[in-house]
Amino acid sequence: MGKAKDNGGSVIAVNKKARHDYFIEERLEAGIALEGWEVKALRAGRIQLKESYVLVRGGEAFLFGAHISPLPSASTHVEPDPRRTRKLLLHRAELNRLIGAVERRGYTLVPLSMYWKRGRAKVEIALAKGKKLHDKRATLRERDWQRERQRLLKAR
């Protein structure tokens, strides 16, 4: 199964929209290849995962759409690209399993969160199935009922 059971270090960003739009089946932890200015921006918490997704191309996984906004003090000789494609670092066996799930079973790979682990940035990715509109409504209804139930139990 996946390695990401405990996020360990401090959380940089969370993709809340992923849990709303997808049924999360399995989670994995992946390293991410970053440039120096990106690491500094992550330490300042300047990342957005909301519109991002993971694609597998040529036997490698890449993170698309993650927006890391550069710090104003970024180096003058580096041209920062906030939406550049970033390579995810996974073991070959994990990649093969993900490729099989995405291509044959129709799953989607979405990033759930980004966090620090032993000084390195890690991304928690998930194999997910898309929710239909009625599934989203049912999830909202269930969450509202749980909230109301807690209020009723607290009132007693």
What topology emerges from the helices and strands here?
Elements: E1 11-14, H1 16-21, E2 22-32, H2 36-43, E3 47-48, E4 53-57, E5 60-64, E6 67-68, E7 86-89, H3 92-105, E8 108-117, E9 120-130, H4 133-155
Antiparallel strand pairs: 1-8, 2-7, 2-9, 3-6, 4-5, 5-7, 8-9
Organism: Inmirania thermothiophila
Family: Belongs to the SmpB family.
Subcellular location: Cytoplasm
Quick recap of the structure?
The protein starts with 10 loop residues before the first strand and ends with a helix. Helix content is 33%, strand content 35%.
Description:
The protein has 156 residues and is of the alpha+beta class. It is built from four helices and nine strands. The protein is globular. The N and C termini lie far apart (42 Å). Belongs to the SmpB family. It comes from Inmirania thermothiophila. One of its GO terms (cellular component) is cytosol. This is SsrA-binding protein.
